[in-house]
Amino acid sequence: xxxxxxxxxxxxxxxxxxxxxxxPLAYDYVDLSYVVNxxxxxxxxxDGDGYGIxxxxxxxxxxxxxxxxxxxxxxxxxxxxxxxxxxxxxxAHYTFADVYRKASLDLYGGLSYDRQSDxxxxxxxxxxxxxxxGVRVGIDNFLExxxxxxYSDLSAENTDLDTALLGYTVGGVFQFTEKLGVLASxxxxxxxxxxxxxxxxxxxxxxxxxx
Length: 211
Hints:
Layout: H1 2-17, E1 29-41, E2 45-59, E3 63-76, E4 79-100, E5 103-118, E6 124-139, E7 143-156, E8 162-175, E9 180-191, E10 199-210
Antiparallel strand pairs: 1-2, 1-10, 2-3, 3-4, 4-5, 5-6, 6-7, 7-8, 8-9, 9-10
């Protein structure tokens, strides 16, 4: 009897001493965000705020579909103009490694259809394609850090205007529970070609609902 107790105790102690591996990062979530500050810099500074929603649904172990829509009101010398964006696409991800005990790392990338309604510079609606590549790091199942490079190639519907937006996003998500977290992110990018005088930057805060 004593040997059985001793054996059971040894097994329990060994199991408790093993490193706990981080759970895989989820690709099933909805983010609701408040755009705290959007700055569109040209000859004169233009700023404003807005609201956004982003959703992602995982498809199997390696793929996902995602969409994002954001509406902003920008103040240009006391006049409010709309600056709205929409993106719908799909991508793939790969859990590269359990980096260190309770940390995991994902590489991901995707392609999207992008649409932009820009009354600020008077070009109206633009659409085209987008591409994104990034890294997500999960730490101890409650904290996620991410960074991505984002590219959009856009053309105006009614004019010959062509432009592209290249930038980066950095941010993080703190999970209060498995289903609820808070997020914060920062984006900075530059337009080129016909809008090469414009630079865009914005901060977001919000909530993540996982399912």
